[in-house]
Specification:
By secondary structure, this protein is of the alpha/beta class. It is built from 13 helices and eleven strands.
Length: 323
């Protein structure tokens, strides 16, 4: 937060916190146990468009107006789970302000017939040209005569009357879905910001389609934005479940799937440790996974000495069901 304040004093008034290695941020100084609450609270205030104020014993008080920050972080699943399952990140409202996606892996299905460069694809070229034009346009700032040249002065981008009616209807729908027992009850923090996030997305879509000269958001753009917000809320439901599943349960599902793929009705630990999925070649993790399957009634331990794989096994199990 301190570094961000100093940067915004001297830099342009809008900054971006982008990284393709989010672990540097999630595991870094800004989000350690001493600074996490302060950092996330400040990010929330900046998302709201509030002034950036600071009071220091050495250099007194300062306040920055008209500053903006955007954030885009990419992280590996194990790293991101640390943040997504963090009680403070959820309780403070930081994650409710984020649009989080955790796409399923496509590894194993990415065959191609020819060498394809992303920059040669016409849709990528069109998007790049549009974004380049927007990025090269200086941001609207207050005049230098007022000595506030680093303060943004954005023009309003208003909803048309049709879009306003849609926003009201969407607000009421989200509100209904947050009732006790409804689909979004567990996502009240994120769903309560659904319409606001949709308006922000609609604003971005409007500017990409019509440039910085646009002055209103149409119903069509808001409809498209609401589709995206609904997708993000569905992702949040899926991710929340994934982020709270214990490692032993995920390993149990992995083991059960491996057994089912091979049609094994009985097994012992040695073949799994030697040739099973890589995460289960750790004896402790394998034992925890087996314990989960036993507790759930998916497998049952055999008596000592039962022949499995041509060996009288000291420990072995029969598969009753698969996950």
């Amino acid at each position: 937060v301190e570094g961000l304040f100093k940067l915004l004093v001297v830099s342009q008034p809008s900054v971006a916190l982008f990284s393709d290695e989010g672990g540097l941020l999630i595991g870094g100084h800004a989000l350690n146990s001493d600074n996490a609450l302060k950092t996330m609270a400040r990010w929330c205030k900046m998302w709201d468009g509030a002034p950036f104020d600071r009071v220091r014993g050495g250099d007194g008080s300062s306040i920055l107006y008209g500053r903006r920050m955007c954030m885009h972080q990419l992280a590996q699943p194990d790293v991101m789970t640390t943040l997504l399952s963090d009680r403070m990140a959820n309780g403070q409202g930081f994650l409710a302000r984020c649009l989080v996606a955790w796409p399923d892996s496509t590894i194993g299905t990415r065959q191609t017939e020819r060498f394809d460069r992303a920059e040669d694809r016409p849709e990528i070229q069109k998007l790049y040209a549009r974004l380049k034009s927007l990025m090269e346009t200086p941001p609207r700032q207050k005049s230098q005569e007022s000595q506030k040249s680093q303060e943004l002065e954005p023009l309003p981008l208003r909803l048309t009357s049709d879009a306003e009616q849609l926003a009201v209807a969407a607000h009421n729908e989200f509100e209904t879905l947050m009732m006790r027992g409804a689909e979004l009850e567990q996502l009240r923090d994120r769903a309560s910001k659904g319409v606001e996030n949709a308006c922000r997305i609609a604003g971005v879509l409007t500017v990409i389609d019509h440039g910085l000269g646009a002055r209103e958001i149409t119903r069509e753009h808001l409809e498209r934005a609401l589709v995206l917000v609904q997708w993000y809320l569905a992702e949040a439901l899926r991710i929340r479940a994934a982020a709270t599943i214990p490692q032993s349960v995920m390993d149990a599902e992995l083991l059960s799937g491996w057994l089912a793929d091979r049609g094994l009705r009985m097994f012992r630990t040695t073949p799994v440790l030697n040739g099973g999925p890589n995460p289960l070649r750790d004896k402790a993790r394998l034992n925890d996974a087996i314990a989960e399957l036993e507790a759930g009634g998916y497998i049952r331990a055999n008596p000592e000495g039962v022949v499995v794989d041509g060996v009288k096994a000291r420990r072995s199990w029969i598969v009753l069901h698969v996950v």
